[in-house]
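Quick question, first post here. What does this chain look like in 3D?
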Amino acid sequence: MRRAAKLGVTSTNDLDEPLLGDVRRAESDIRTAEGRLENPQHRLSDRLFWFNLGIQVQANETQGEGTGVGTISSKHDEALRTLFAAFGSDLTDAGVQVWTQALRAWNQVVADDAYWGLSLELEEKGCFEPAALPSEIDTLREDAISQAAEPLLRAARDAVLRNDMPVVARILTALEEFADTGSWAMLAQQDISSPIVTRFKDRCRSVRDESGTKIVREQNTAKTNKILCDSALKRFRSEIAPAQAELLKLFGSNQEIAQQVREESALCLSGIATDYTWADEYIISEKLNEEALKLAHDTLGAVRIEHGLEQVRASANRQRIFGASVASAPSLRTINGFGFTIYGHSDYHAESKSYSTTHYFVALFLPIFPLGRYRVINTGGRHYSFIGEIPLRTGDRWHLGISIAAVSAFIVLCVAAPSQNARTPYHPPSTPSYYNPPAYTPPAEAVSVNVYSVDGRKPPMVAVV
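> Answer (accepted):
Ran it through. Tokens below.
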């Protein structure tokens, strides 16, 4: 072949496989092939994908209850052709199924001791120097199916780069069927999924840093911090949660990868929960930590989250009783029965001698609009100490809604009434009429007074009653 290459008379021969395309026969290609033959590991690996072309080595095979004799070399060649045919298939459901069938047939060959006996016999007959060691054959045997699956795995990695998740899902599902053929399938799944999980972790850290790096850890900054926490939580709900659901669906059967996704998502949520403590929202922090702990079950992150939850629970319980801190007391001033006051006395706390009450806008001392609820301490008479603000009760919210609806309806009616009168059409009389005042007849009690002008003329009489 080398002489033919030098003379430029290389050509195909009967041993070429059209399925594999043209065989390169330049002198450099031939020398490279010779170099690989001199390396035991390369030689064994390459021979794994050579056609045996009629080498007959008999091997006993078990078929059901009986024992038959088959040709392992022909079975190898048949499986190899099936494998090469899969190279040309697309990555649709049908194409991935072709790959699954080809790899299953290939596994039946490389799992057979007779095939490796053939490989060792060919190695001895070749008289290669240096000869391959039995340990090198055993190592190749462990990697035989993963080497055959490498084109499929490469296609999966390319699909990850293109973010073509349907193709990735098909290939990962196909690999699940080979869990019984060794650890290579699980390792392949991890290799394919690693970039996807890394991207998800980066997104979680981005959302976490939105609040974590901007939180002002000082007193009297709760309002600003709450805005940052609300924004980060909104991004978690709109970005992280949907992405997590997609990945769990993609990696659902692979518990190890699914745990990584859940753990990273839970740690992100727990971090946001911690930031809420700097917004004086301990109850929200407790709820988010409980959600994160449920998400992170059976992971190492669950220990960290549970520790943080224990720390925030005491503050959350206190906030349930006393409410959020109050910067200033609300107005309790009324003028002629109109203004603001508090009504109600519930949830008495003996230790602090405080109770819950509702702050109202009143009209004629009637509670119209509930504006808020507070925990207060009566310090004597109509003097109160406001120690916390608590949420409105359901009944208070109904009261507020009904009051707003009633006032709005009253305003609408007041506005609509004049407009309806203004739209009443004017109809002029059909014939003109003139006003003829009746003649004046002074009553009997009238007193007539004559008034004279300066020039002596007598003006008309004026009756004064």
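Confidence is low (pLDDT under 50) at residues 57-70, 433-437, 440-465.
The longest helix spans residues 184-212.
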